[in-house]
Amino acid sequence: MLGTLVRYLRFLGYDTRSATEIGPGGAEEDNLLLRLAVEEGRILLTRDRELARRGGILVPEDDVLDQVAALARAGLVEPVLRLDRCSRCNTPLRPATRKEADTAPFVAGRDETRFLWCPACRRLYWSGSHVDRLTERLDRVARMVHHSRR
Ligand SMILES: [Zn+2]
Fold this sequence. Notes:
This protein has 150 residues and is mainly alpha-helical. It is 42% helix and 9% strand.
């Protein structure tokens, strides 16, 4: 249920596992998630009040920017785009080879653009309008956090 937040946290560079990629579902899943969080030193984010009570952090906000802002206010994340981790599978990105970068559709300013590659799902990332939009949204989050501190 926090799929969008998972993607955002990965864009921010945080090593993030998604419950939908782990869980068997049902009551078993809560125990498994709580155990994994301890074993792997992770913070468990959840929309489930009962699970939050047992050792997670409740994320009641519906909008992903509100969610990121709440986590930033709690001092858990810094709302800064790092783009060093695959948003789809969490694998650290590496600079793309020329050949990998050439799989991109037309990219303006191609020679100056930094192309990154996910070796696990063979996905290419580059700074472009979608990254600009993401940066704008995160700037908005940073302002939300800043204002609430005053
Ligand atoms: Zn990937």
